[in-house]
């Protein structure tokens, strides 16, 4: 069953569109590195940013904790506001300039943070980082532009692998260089981002030809306006609900993992770092090696359902695990959850025209920004209740909550993720 296109097709009397040039391996590599650097932008700060904030607060840990929470909330807010804007700009001006300028801006922002003379300037740098890191939506649109629909899940999986790689390398690099100087990780990241921008200037081709670009409208480029695209088709809206529940569930890990591991298993920094690295490596293996073959064999719908099922079970293991050893057994289960994200992205990208791929990816990234603001507040409160309640002592409550959220996501996906037809049909 074919779906109604979300964007009107060009008039049949217009000249035949020029086919999009096939991307080179170098272009795909550049997009992969760009996404990895975006994640590194977050990961490199995990071990050093709190300590730098403590330094600016003259050793007052309580005040530093409050400031760190504000930093995290503000970063997610910038993602929420600017992801749909950059996506819409890329639909109008092309993907290449947005991606290159984002890389350039991220590199310059790292320099600003490295040189920040006060907490205020560090905060400004964090805000800019949230804006420039919002280029993930454009990277996703680039992949959708140049990849046949049946291969998109595999390519989106590679973007997921870039996320995992950045999550592994970022904290490790930040910790290593931070041992020398708290500002050195920012200088290193600045050099990588600026070098990547220069490299992309010479090798990255444009993926969106002029005849397939869409007019820019502020009503569609703002966060709320971008969601109108998700409401324009019943199945697309249902898949957006799946994505929302998916992202909320995911935010339990960065929100409470360190607190949970310290409270329940008495893990120190080394064991926490080992566990985070294991999570990143397992996720990268699934995204890079398993998503493509399994989606090709199972189809996007079945891969999505299987991924969500493993995610629900994995979070259940996390919440139940009475010892650290049992907790570690949940890592490979949760890694298979990585089948869900690329499959979901591929199913959604089938339902919009090429000229709206940037808006779609921007809307999804903006949604992730919303959950990034909700998750820390939600799961820290659930954790606090779980360990302080006199009637129901449940330290794993945040992960049980994530398991239930993914169970709801699985039910919605079962109902709506079917008969996915391309937007052009």
Quick synopsis:
This protein is mainly α. It has helices at residues 25-43, 49-56, 61-93, 95-115, 119-132, 136-146, 152-178, 184-203, 218-221, 223-230, 234-250, 252-265, 269-298, 300-320, 324-336, 340-349, 357-388, 397-416.
Relevant terms:
single chain, mainly alpha, Growth Hormone, Chain: A, 18 helices, disordered C terminus
Largest sheet: none
CATH architecture label of the largest domain: Up-down Bundle
Q: Which CATH first-tier class of the largest domain would you pick?
A: Mainly Alpha
Q: End-to-end distance, in Å?
A: 9 Å
Structural class, from helix and strand content?
Answer: mainly alpha
Shape: globular
Order of helices and strands: HHHHHHHHHHHHHHHHHH
Describe it:
With 425 residues, the chain is an all-alpha fold. It folds into two domains: 22-203, MFS general substrate transporter like domains (Growth Hormone, Chain: A, Up-down Bundle), CATH 1.20.1250; 226-425, Growth Hormone, Chain: A. The protein is 76% helix and 0% strand. The chain has 18 helices and no strands. The chain has helices at 25-43, 49-56, 61-93, 95-115, 119-132, 136-146, 152-178, 184-203, 218-221, 223-230, 234-250, 252-265, 269-298, 300-320, 324-336, 340-349, 357-388, 397-416. It is globular. The protein starts with 24 loop residues before the first helix and ends in a 9-residue tail after the last helix.
């Amino acid at each position: 069953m074919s779906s109604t296109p979300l964007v009107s097709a060009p008039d049949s009397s217009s000249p035949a569109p020029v086919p999009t040039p096939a991307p080179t391996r170098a272009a795909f590599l550049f997009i992969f590195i760009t996404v990895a650097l975006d994640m590194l932008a977050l990961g490199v700060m995990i071990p050093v940013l709190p300590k730098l904030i403590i330094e600016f607060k003259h050793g007052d840990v309580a005040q530093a904790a409050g400031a760190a929470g504000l930093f995290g909330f503000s970063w997610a807010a910038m993602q929420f506001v600017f992801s749909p804007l950059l996506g819409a700009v890329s639909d109008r001006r092309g993907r290449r300039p947005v991606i290159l300028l984002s890389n350039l801006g991220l590199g310059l922002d790292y320099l600003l943070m490295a040189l920040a003379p006060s907490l205020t300037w560090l905060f400004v740098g964090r805000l800019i980082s949230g804006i420039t890191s919002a280029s993930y939506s454009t990277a996703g649109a680039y992949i959708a532009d140049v990849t046949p629909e049946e291969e998109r899940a595999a390519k989106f999986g590679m973007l997921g692998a870039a996320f995992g790689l950045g999550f592994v390398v970022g904290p490790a690099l930040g910790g290593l260089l931070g041992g020398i100087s708290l500002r050195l990780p920012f200088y290193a990241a600045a050099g990588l981002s600026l070098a990547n921008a220069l490299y992309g200037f010479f090798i990255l081709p444009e993926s969106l030809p002029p005849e397939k670009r869409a007019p820019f409208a502020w009503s569609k480029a703002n966060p709320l306006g971008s969601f109108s695209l998700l409401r324009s088709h019943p199945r697309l809206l249902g898949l957006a609900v799946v994505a929302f529940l998916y992202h909320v569930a995911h935010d339990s890990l960065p929100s409470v993992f360190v607190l949970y591991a310290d409270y329940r298993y008495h893990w120190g920094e080394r064991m926490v770092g080992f566990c985070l690295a294991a999570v990143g490596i397992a996720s990268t293996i699934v995204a890079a090696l398993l998503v493509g073959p399994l989606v090709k064999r199972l189809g996007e719908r079945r891969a999505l359902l299987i991924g969500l099922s493993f995610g629900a079970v994995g979070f259940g293991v996390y919440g139940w695990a009475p010892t650290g050893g049992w907790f570690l057994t949940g890592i490979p289960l949760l890694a298979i959850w990585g089948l869900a994200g690329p499959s979901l992205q591929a199913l959604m990208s089938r339902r919009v025209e090429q000229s709206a791929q940037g808006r779609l990816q921007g809307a999804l990234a903006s949604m992730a920004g919303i959950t990034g603001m909700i998750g820390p507040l939600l799961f820290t409160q659930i954790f606090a209740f779980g360990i302080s309640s006199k009637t129901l002592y449940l330290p794993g409550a945040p992960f049980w909550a994530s398991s239930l959220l993914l169970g709801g996501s699985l039910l919605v996906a079962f109902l709506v993720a079917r008969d996915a037809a391309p937007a052009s049909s």
